[in-house]
Amino acid sequence: MREFANFDTIMERLSLGHLWDFPGGVHPKQQKTLSNKTLIKSLSLPDFLYIPVKQHIGVEGKIVVSEGDIVLKGQALTASENPFAVPVHASSSGVVRFIKEHPAAHPSGLPELTIGIELDGKDEAVSTQGISQYAQVDKNDIISAICNAGICGLGGAGFPTHIKSNNVKPIDFLIINGIECEPYISADDRLMREHAWQIRQGIDILRHLVQPKQVIIAIEDNKPEAYETMSIACQQQSEYQVIRVPTKYPAGGEKQLIQVLTSREVPSDGLPLDIGCIMYNVGTCYAVADAIIEGKALTERVVTVTGEAINKPQNVWAKIGTPVSHLLECCEFDREKQQFPRIIMGGPMMGFTLTSAQIPVVKITNCILAPAENELPSVEDERACIRCSACADACPASLLPQQLFWYSKAKEYDVAQKYDLFDCIECGACAYVCPSEIPLVHYYRQAKSDIRQQQHEKEQAEKARIRFEARKVRLEREKHEREEKHRLAAEARNQTLKKDGGAAKDKIAAALARAKAKKAAKQQVSVSEDANEASKTEKTIVDAKEDTNIQETTTSAADEKKKRVAATIAKAKARKKAAALAQAAKEHNNGTSVEVDPKND
Ligand code: SF4
Ligand code: SF4
């Protein structure tokens, strides 16, 4: 690592008002007065909030709400289950209407998992409790509170603040970044002017955590009012020094500002911590004070809404998740001033054009820029590179932007990386000076994104290969274990047989005999049951036959009786006829004639 200036040398130089410089840099038109003249304004509530579950560098937290849940302002929507997960919170009260993908506040515009909240207009908040005596509590509790409040770097990087504050390395300089070098943006300027005391409180908390030798608050010399208010707020702290930094873009870049203040250079693959420095944005300090002293989660931030297509350019308190369309409406965006719709999130140097006005404000959004026609160069104006090398002269990272452009455009990413593509801070200084108006940063971002995607796919493939290999090894091992188990069982049986001699064989034979006898007994029982059944059947047949005989006998007796009755009747009739004839003969003999009824015969 390169030698760097020691602490005392730096302090001596700073006390004389002398600073260092960084290579390159540009002086674009500031345009800050468009928006920095009025107080930060609170806006009306939007109807809907779109809160992306990941708004920082790291991993997303675990979602702890469901569709239909009623939520209050400050209520956590995700929980941090990983050191690199920073939770997100509801910025106002309402009902969770969806948890799905929504266009993201990112140059790619690709959708990201988002929690949609329909607001009830009441803006009810959860009750909060701060840690007023933070110096008396365990530092880990303060770091947890910062994490639970969902704070990440508000200057644009979005690095989790609790991770940065949990360092163990000795720190020479705690640097508070109030530079805000990008044209048009005045959010930090207004925050320092109006809330210097709360920023000071946040600095005190961070100082307590990282224990630096010196605190430096750096403000660009184009913000005299902010310099004044911060100087007053910090005057009682002897280790605090508020320093004016000459205006040059991008003096607010982390590496560039450290170089200006200390002459130390952050190594290409290193961190400011490696050279005894740590840096926070003024907005982050404000949020830290809110979290620790008030117990409030990060639910809103200052956003500059500006550009010549905005009738009322100003700074506003924007709730995280507010769609950009609401900000434009509140600040009177005039569509007539743009031939083609163009809304930029961020400034003209590092910002990106939005693909939808429904994209929300996130924790790192510092500006919404709506330029009028011809206010900014158009992407369509790109012409061929004339190899003028103006881009290299402007580069604050001492890169070769022209070569990076060629290799990025040709997708020769290996070569682009050899030209330190990932050292590019995407400041846009090269594109700003390019006479061919080539949107150089666009090519670098695309190249970085492709490389990250390739690396991700490679990592996934590698993980899949490792899983496959591990499974193969596991199956092999299990097979061997099974075979070994069988082998040991067989061996144990053989040994038992050998040990018991014939006894074991006899036991087996006896067992077989018992089984045979049992089987035979069963068969015997079955045969006798069959015989009983046959006998029962035979008896049934005999009984049936006897019944038939009785029936026949009864029938014959009845016939006999009928015959006897008939004979008796015949006899009676004969007797009656004979008596009638005898009577007739007697009457005839006495001269009386008698008619005999033939039917009575
Ligand atoms: S400034 Fe533009 S035209 Fe000139 S070398 Fe760089 S990319 Fe090419
Ligand atoms: S965008 Fe990258 S290459 Fe261009 S000037 Fe900035 S750091 Fe250099």
Description:
This protein is of the alpha/beta class. 43% of the residues lie in helices and 13% in strands. The chain contains 14 helices and 16 strands. The strands form four sheets. Strands 1-13-12-16-14-15 form a six-stranded mixed sheet, with helices on both faces. It has a four-stranded antiparallel sheet with strand order 2-7-6-4, with no helix packed on it. Strands 10-9-8-11 form a four-stranded parallel sheet, with helices on both faces. A hairpin with a 6-residue loop joins strand 14 and strand 15. Helix 4 packs parallel to helix 5, helix 4 crosses helix 7 and helix 10 crosses helix 13. The longest helix is centred in the last third of the chain and has 88 residues. 37% of the residues are buried. The C terminus is likely disordered. The chain binds iron/sulfur cluster (2 copies). The site of one iron/sulfur cluster has 15 residues, from helix 9 and helix 10.
Q: Helix-strand pattern, N to C?
A: HEEEEEEEHHEHEHEHEHEEHEEEHHHHHH
Which class do the helix and strand fractions yield? alpha/beta
For the report, how would you describe the main beta sheet? 6 strands, mixed
Distance N terminus to C terminus? Answer: 160 Å
* Approximate strand percentage: 5-15%
Main-sheet strand order equals 1-13-12-16-14-15
Bound molecules: iron/sulfur cluster
Low-confidence stretches: 540-555, 589-601
Please estimate the helix content. Answer: 40-55%
Radius of gyration: 52 Å
| Annotation, overall tally of beta strands | 16
User: What is the typical, i.e. mean, pLDDT?
Assistant: 89
Based on Cα principal axes, name the global outline.
elongated
Number of helices: 14
